[in-house]
Write a structure and sequence with these properties.
Length: 169
């Protein structure tokens, strides 16, 4: 039992990083991770040590995130009064900050399946096989989603993509 909890504890930083990248809100991400950990501990009897605890936890977190998105669409979005600016906001003049904000917006604009794949591979450094298992898709599907996500980000940044087929002269 304590080994199981130690493995879970070791995964918390990665779960928090992934949740923050998905939600783009620290409080929401922390709530998501807490819900994930509560569910994992409460249902530890369902874990079959056929694979790593990390993949199981990421799967739980991802399912909770998706469920929250579905519920949020039914409820609508709540905006706190403190979050509404009283005066017009001007973007920061720093180019690096602006580029980072543009990249974050481009990632947010990706379809959910591409965003999930991209963040698992790029942010968390999960292997293709493990990411495919977490997302519940074949590895080829994962690689396709990842390719489309990267192409969309290149396009959003105005960087020409590499052609898939090159003509040999």
């Amino acid at each position: 039992m304590s080994e199981f909890l130690s493995e879970i504890e070791a995964c918390v930083p990665a779960l928090r990083r992934y949740a923050r990248a998905l939600t783009r809100n620290a409080d929401t991400a922390d709530d998501l991770v807490q819900d994930c950990l509560e569910r994992a501990i409460a249902r530890r009897g369902l874990f079959r040590p056929q694979g790593p605890v990390r993949a199981w936890l990421f799967t739980i977190l991802l399912n909770l995130y998706r469920n929250g998105l579905r519920a949020g669409r039914r409820r609508g979005q709540v905006v706190a009064l403190d979050d509404v600016p009283s005066e017009p906001v001007t973007p920061a003049p720093q180019p690096g900050h602006m580029a980072l904000a543009e990249t974050a917006r481009a990632i947010d604009a990706l379809p959910l399946d591409q965003k999930e794949a991209l963040l698992l591979i790029v942010l968390e450094g999960v292997s293709y096989a493990e990411a495919a298992g977490i997302l519940g898709v074949p590895q080829g599907t994962l690689m396709s989603r990842l390719s489309r996500a990267r192409a969309a980000l290149r396009s959003a940044a105005g960087v020409p993509g590499e052609p898939y087929l090159r003509t040999v002269k």
